[in-house]
Amino acid sequence: MRIYITKDYNEMSRKAANIISAQIILKPNCVLGLATGSTPAGIYAQLVEWFEKGDLDFSEVITVNLDEYKGLGAESEQSYVSYMRKNLFDRVNLRSENVHLPDGRISDSEEACRTYNKLLDEIGPQDLQLLGLGRNGHIGFNEPGNFFEKDVHCVELSQSTVEANMRFFEAGKSVPSHAYTMGIRSILRAKKILVVASGENKAEAVKKVFFGQVTPEVPGSILQLHNDVTLVADEGAFSLCKS
User: Fold this and answer.
1) Is 111 helix (H, G, I), strand (E, B) or coil?
2) Is 65 an annotated catalytic residue?
3) Which residue among the candidates 68, 127, 143, 204 is catalytic per the annotation?
4) 227 belongs to the catalytic site
5) What Rg, from alpha-carbon coordinates, does the chain have?
6) Is residue 33 domain-resident?
7) Which of 117, 136, 142, 165 is flagged as catalytic?
8) Is residue 191 part of a domain?
9) Residue 113 lies in a domain
10) CATH number of the domain within which 230 lies
11) Which residues, including other chains, have CB under 8 Å from residue 188's CB and lie 6 or more apart?
12) Long-range contact list for 17-20, CB < 8 A, 24+ apart?
């Protein structure tokens, strides 16, 4: 595992964007696994800036996203497909047929999961998978539990996750209680995994995920078993790991 400690969020974003851009340059038709939320936003902004300068070409890149809220589609501003369009997809030259997310509009959970699992198997392993960390140590929407979920599945979101995501929803609108998410097998099959973390509110999660016991009670801890993981964290997020 490689660990990079940065001064702040902006430096973390640039460092992580550098790693992703290197992957695109080395393999223009790479498969990128993408994440959403507040932490990756700065990474996407940096990638867009480099694209606009002519330093990056996304025309052959294939993307697969980790998750999507059940019940939300592109028409909802809070859906992850809307987030990705606003932050990356509509701002670079990605081909629409090359971007993939779970379909939150499918109400039948088994059908939605089966469809995305099949797609992931057809596309093949991610060359690089970007991950953020939930405050409870979740990756994707794999919440703490008694075992590691393997494949794409529908999960009931924990209260802490719902509360953390409330800031993305307008007043009076509730956060969906369920989401479709890649499972642990879906994530670990990636050739490289890039984890980003920012702020002291993620410090406990970083400590447990990377330096604690491997347990489904801290889903991200399974990353300790992958052979190519890079953590980019700012000083706040790494503050509990210093000797």
Assistant:
1) helix
2) no
3) 143
4) no
5) 17
6) yes
7) 136
8) no
9) yes
10) 3.40.50.1360
11) 222, 223, 225, 226
12) 17/43, 17/46, 17/47, 17/50, 19/128, 19/194, 19/230, 19/232, 20/47, 20/128, 20/130, 20/194
Residue 190 lies in a domain: no
- Print the SS3 string covering 155-167: EECCHHHHHHHHH
pLDDT tens-digit map of 74-92:
888 889 999 999 999 999 9
Residue 65 binned pLDDT confidence (cut-offs 50, 70, 90): very high
Strand (E) or helix (H) holding 120: helix 109-123
Our answer to whether residue 136 is catalytic in this structure is yes
Domain membership of residue 90 as a residue range: 2-185+210-234
Task: Give the tens place of pLDDT for each residue, 18-34.
Answer: 999 999 999 999 999 99
Considering its fold, how many domains does the chain have in total? 1
pLDDT at 243: 52
| Gap between the Cα atoms of 176 and 97, Å rounded | 27
178 given a catalytic annotation: no
Task: Name the pLDDT band for 122 (thresholds 50, 70, 90).
Answer: very high
Task: Identify the active-site residue in 65, 87, 127, 138.
Answer: 138
